[in-house]
Amino acid sequence: MNQKDIVVAVDIGTTSTKSAAFDPTGHIYAESAQEYPLYSEVASRAEQDPEEIFQAIMKTLSDVVASMGEARARIAAVSFSSAMHSLIALDREGTPLTRSMTWADQRASLHAEQLKATAVGQGIYQRTGTPIHPMSPLVKLLWFKDEDQETYQKAAKWVGIKEYAFFRLFGTYVVDYSIASATGLFNLHTCDWDAEALALTGVPKEKLPEPVPTTQVIQGLNKADAEQLGLPADLPFVVGASDGVLANLGVGAIAPGTVACSIGTSGAVRTVVNAPTTDPKGRLFCYALTEDQWVIGGPINNGGVAFRWARDHIFPDLKAGSEDPYEYLTQLASEIDPGSEGLLFLPYLTGERAPLWNADTKGVFFGLTLNHDRRHMIRAVMEGVMFQMHAVVAALKETGVDPQAFRVTGGFTKSLLWRQIMADIFERGIHVPETPQGSSFGAALLAMKALGILNDFSTVEEIVAIGHRHTPNDEASQVYRKLKPIFMDLAEKLTPDFKALSAVQRDLGQKQ
């Protein structure tokens, strides 16, 4: 690759698609984003229109290609990143019979609960690395089988959103190992569809895309799309991977002991391993990055959403003015000592995924006394999110991972206090990349490896510059060391009460 050779990465997200042009150093030459709606006419459903997403891909990719043409830079390849767990039913012509069910769709909750309680479900998890949860296409297919026989019988293909895009562009059905390994249908050890999982759903492998490596190159872009995009039909398109595993690559968290943590609305903890690894207790996922590298970890539901809830409901009197309300809340929290004088917050406002995988969990303030005020509550919320992230780290440790350093990204990194709380609770160094590119840059790096520009990913950690570093405060860590086991025990002990309360809340909701 010469200095002007560029790789364009397309990142298909839950709320928008972004395209960006990178060189091997991570410099962005051009970028474009297009949002689209999430449809939720029924509370348990969270869907998107495949056509709207495809048009967003075409629009953002066209924008970036045009910018590169003006800069006279040669595009060497296009690569893809995508959100996981989507599912679309297609007819024989490849026309969608359904919208795209996203990871947030909960209609298969009962099917997940029933399967999770069986030895069959546990066996499928151990082979596929996908926790039994309504997010997974495995469980969504069970829902279609039982609840929508008409669509189930008509469907000629079942695909995710990235596979749908590749079908539209190339007329072929392929799925990368990474996205496939997030379906609950893909055997991590054979790198093929799992026979028992397929038998359970009743869907033959012929109705699924062909699994291919994440570095698979596809050429032969259909003529009309090539003309619309301004690209040659024989330009290499790299199939790419899921946004989660590519985020590790994009922030340089690929060495043993280096863990990537991100907190936006939700959060995630991930690290790279050299062999498929699952958790005997079913708390962690394991997804493919390449044929010989895998990412294990877990997502949490409640990250920045908990802080926003605290702003809106604990501080409803706060008026946004010249001062950032989050900075004001952080300042109030900084007036309280670590540990919030023994006040704990379980941040389960939207249920929880890792390591609990329990949609019935609820938010809880535990330990309130007359000495606590709103400052304690806001700090407890910030600490509660980090305690939950650390619970995923603790599960990783039990599987044999030895975390030594954490590379962290997301909106929470704007807060010096929150970053320090993480370092103190995790009791490890926290590194904040200077300009985190995340999944998009990861997709570009994957393409560079596919084209032979990079022999391996050993130099990626050096490419990603670190902007902030935090070391643990021993005094604060000692306080958190006493609180962590109490926090982790609470959710387990409250499990039956969470379930009972959920039933009451559903009943009350139906009567309103």
From TrEMBL:
Gene3D superfamilies: 3.30.420.40. Residues 7-250 form the Carbohydrate kinase FGGY N-terminal domain. GO terms for molecular function: kinase activity; phosphotransferase activity, alcohol group as acceptor. One of its GO terms (biological process) is carbohydrate metabolic process. Keywords: Kinase, Transferase. Residues 260-450 form the Carbohydrate kinase FGGY C-terminal domain. It holds the Pfam family FGGY_C. SUPFAM superfamilies: Actin-like ATPase domain. The keyword Chloroplast does not apply. Belongs to the FGGY kinase family. This is Gluconate kinase. The lineage of its organism: Bacteria, Bacillati, Bacillota, Bacilli, Bacillales.
